[in-house]
Design a protein that fits this description.
heterodimer; A: alpha/beta; TIM Barrel; 8-stranded parallel sheet; 10 helices; B: alpha/beta; Elongation Factor Tu (Ef-tu), domain 3; Rossmann fold; 2 domains; 7-stranded mixed sheet; 6 helices; 16 strands; about 30% strand; disordered N terminus
Amino acid sequence: MRVEFCGLDLAHPIVNGSGTYDAIAARRAFGDALVERFPFSAFVSKTITLQPRDGNPPPRLYETPAGMINSIGLPNKGLDGYLAHDLPELARLPVPLITNVMGATADDIATLVEAVDARREIDAVELNVSCPNVKTGLDIGADPVELGAVVARVRPLTAKPLIVKLTPNASDVPAAAQAAEAAGADAVSLINTLRAFAPHPRLPRTPWLGGGTGGLSGPAVRAVALAQVRAVAQRVSIPIVGMGGIQSGRHAAQLLDAGATLVAVGTESFRDPAAGRRIQHELHDLFAKSGDIVNGHHDV
Amino acid sequence: MSGIVGGERRTLAPFGRRRLRVAERHELGAYVVVEAADPDGPAPRPGQFYMLAAAERWGGGEDERPFLPRAFSVLRVADGRLQFMLEDVGPGTARLCELQSGDGLWVTGPLGLGFSAPDAGPPARRALLCGGGVGTAPLAIWQDELLARGVPAPALLGFRDAAHAEGAALLANPRVATDDGSAGEHHGLVTDLLAAELDDDPRATVYACGPPPMLEAVRALCAARDVPAQLALEAGMACGFGACFGCVVPTRDGGYVRLCVDGPVLDAAALAEVPGH
């Protein structure tokens, strides 16, 4: 099950989606068992921004059919807080560390990437480009031209693998992936959450979520993830981290078959903190049975 | 907040969810008490909670829900069984209330930080328990422990009506208030009883769990009398172990804390007010 990803030698293809697992908090709940049976082959941090953020006012969650909408608002300690407080703890995890960063301007992103590049404990950088451009209001990642410019700007600032986390809320996701590749990205990851709205259960014309809108995740989005990963894989040659509603080894195999090199588990970890480990074992069993990740595993 | 040492407030949870078998289910007025055999699970601290999901048919209810597990404070642990007090108020609790003996139940836990003992003093403080509705649950296991330690722990409980007030049987010697006066000694709010108790003798640490308006009233009247209080709060929660950042409450000094890892029991002094009241 070992897999090579951008020069990193990983024990298996299952990682976590950014912002879906707080390994430091999980260790407080589960103790050393979390580290001894760590569910992922690499750990992706939640999004780090230049300045600390409290996140959005509650409520932050809304349950949907086969999924959920979140409006968390990227709470984090800011770059300095992350490097001083979180990084030393995350560096003790038994797997490589991928740090996810987001900035509102190319300069902010450059500052973040340079700071991450300087730390040996960090093995790769992931760019969250689902951030509105302060001038246009559009997500940086939704416009291939702007995305290409941002990636080209930060690419020379780090020798570490650079992963671009694409937004699914764009008219042409493969075009964005191509722009990222052309600008020097080592990999792309997708899908981020789908923009979604949760109506207040009692008040008309009122959002339930404190942040107004949110992002849909869970098995409800799995078919969208398969379509987008497949479409991106047909247009780029760099590796893909696929994610979106993965709940089983079979689901992971389907995403690998669509063209992903790694598969990230997100919302399913909320339902079971060890879901990544179970999915990894199920995927291993599928490989062992068939020697092939797909054939014979299409349930009608 | 990562500097908090759990100590007596936290028992570590086994890593991952585990499948238990429902050993018993019985109705208690408007409530359902479900007991799940957990012979190998650790003993929780009073005030800790578990994430619960039925092993079968979790989903497909109202609006094709539930999807996420639901958080419940543990009511009691006896004979290797975890007990939970449930009330059917939505698609998740509806499904859990249907569980029968022999059914599978996914649990993750115990999670969070529970209650801590009253200050030894001086002045010596008695424990005073104040519960509302299904918020009675964590006070039962806490009262058991306090009484076993020789700490007096009188309980004041409030319910909507007589059917809900049957839940009072879960605690020893409670004084009961009901909104409609159909049961108990007091027609009105449980916080009326609490105010009278504290006016009589303020040397107490108050432990409270219940709906947000009740908890806000407890917070305010304890603050006004300089009485320490520990509040067990509730919030929509996806994961229960700090992953989703969904269950935050604003604190007095700005920012948020996650109820699942920094609570659900919070020192009332940490809050400017109880959210959602």
